[in-house]
Predict the 3D structure of the following.
Amino acid sequence: MDRTINREASGDQLARRLPRRYSRLAFQEAVAGWLFASPWIIGFLVFTAVPMLFSLYASFTRYNIIAAPKWIGLRNYETIFFNDNFFWKALENTFWLVGFKVPIVMIVAIAIAMLLNLDLPGERFFRTIIYLPNVLSGVAAVFLWQWILAPDGLLNRGLALVGIDGPAWFVDPAWTKPGLIVMGMWWIGGNVLIYLAGLKGIPSQLYEAAAIDGANWWAKTRHITLPMLSPTIFFQIVTTIIGTFQIFTTVYIIAGSSAGGSGRDVAFGGPGQSLLFYVLYLYNRAFGKVGVGGLQMGYASALAWILFVIILVITLIQLRLAKRWVYYESE
Amino acid sequence: MTSTFIENPPVQPVEALPREQRRDTKPRRPLTIGRLLALLLMIGITILFVVPLFWMVSTSLKTPQGLLKPDWIPNPIAWENYTTAFSFGLWPRWFLNTIIITLVSLVGMVLSTSLVAYSFALLRWPGRDFMFALVLATMMLPEVVTLIPQFILFSRLPAFGFQGSKVWVNTFLPLIVPAFTGSAFYIFLLRQFMRGIPTELTEAAKIDGASRLGIWWHIVLPLSKPALATIAIFHFQGAWQDFMKPLLYLQSEELYTIQLGLTQFQAAAGGAPAWNWLMAASLVVMLPVLVVFVLFQQYFIEGISISGFGGR
């Protein structure tokens, strides 16, 4: 016991004299470290790593869960790229949403955050209310927005008051995706709070110095706010893109209403397949009905890996581009 | 590059967060015309954010005829919508299922995440930094990549008749057991927090002869309460409102969660849903989450700032 205490007390000297692997305490700590981390490590192996490897293998097979997988080489990938209109439709829809929604969310969120950062009375109240919708997700929230965006719903009634004849939103194939963006604005609060935290981190001396130099609001925004906020903007763009690529619950519910809820085949994706987003298409292929394109686990695994590579490439491109426009103070 | 970028999120949370106390001692800037306009604009925006919820409440109290009128205050008020909405389907059962899944997975998530985060934050072991890099990497991993193979796994794993099923599919197990292995995002969040615990405290306990499990339970957990609360609340919100996993794994109606229960309205209505019932049911389903938010909102807002992630 005495010796243990001594070793603890002079741990530093001990570490210098003894190679680490010979130290009993270090060994004990290593065992404890691995043991304490083992829930995650086991979970990672069982629920992530091994499944991922299996799905990579499955993507080269024909597999319906019931019979054993049958190796067919690159056939799934060939079909997807050269002979699958639904794949291209899903990709087109998904890129459309990412391309429009991400910048709109960014601009609106920064604008609201800048308003909130004016040190207005009641700031805390505004923050809370704007964040509130972020805790509401799932089917109930989607139903609410289907009702608001119904052809005779609240939004169109509001638009009618100012003389605008609102579109049929989730019923009209041309307006389903804009409808998703309008709906998505309700969940902008999380982004606003992150931008607000970024804004609060900008030292006020910068603005004071600029004011002395006679800079106007736009000059301050252009040359102080945006550069100082760029790491936050970058982080937000990366995470919003990854999230938008994986939209599922919302479109599943909305598409389900227009199709009457049953008879799921590969084409299940709202009016004119305008809501056939990537993960929904993948779901149809994997878990849809047999005979109408469903239960093709091998094919769907190939789709999953293609999405993974797309997201990875887009993220890597952004990391590369970030060097040109993201400003880090320490550099 | 990716890992350093996640490990040092651009948002520096605690300092950046406006301390309410500090805020009160600072004199407010006077209201100029410009700032008054900004305030009005902000009030307008805030109204836009709550209008959908008011509309939901209003709709849920309307009669079928009342639905055709754009009134905010329904006349007559149809309280019976709330009983009608829950009169078909197995709602008591579905609520109970959701409560069981949410609470059991919550306990598993908090216990495992705190153990793992403790190991990453305060213990030194070979391979730790590599493992933590793996944790960060899985955070960036799109969920959809593991969706299919996990389903195949759970359709093979034996459940030995648990909930009347031979395999894990069509039991609560796929929704509960993975929570006991922690989640990368929460581990990251908690580890950042635990690194702020002074090592003097844990070292002193060690000298007093406390085991590591004892240190975790008696020192680390109590000191991590705010971060644990954030995780528990996030997990509650996510599990209560999860749709995709119940959709995949729960097939018999008596195992449904309330989210799946809500979609039964769609199937029953066949295209022209009764919005008043639907809104009544949706509101009740949302209510626990709203109550938790009102009670614990500072934890939500801190969690967002600590992590730099906006959820969704």
Notes: Residues 2-58 of chain A form one domain.
